[in-house]
Amino acid sequence: MAHPKHKVSSTRRDKRRTHYKAVVPTVVVCSNCGASVLYHRVCPECGFYRGKLAIEKKVAE
Fold this sequence. Notes:
two-stranded antiparallel sheet, 4 strands, alpha+beta, 11% helix
């Protein structure tokens, strides 16, 4: 296994770690029912995607 010959400075280490960050998911409003939906996903409330019915949702009795 390789061993470092020199200490990695805090500046160099931090420059490498600048890209380690959490990303916030893109949330949009459903055009059919107005619920919050993750982008490029079928609406879990009504089953519509891009204005068309994608999945049939069961009606609660």
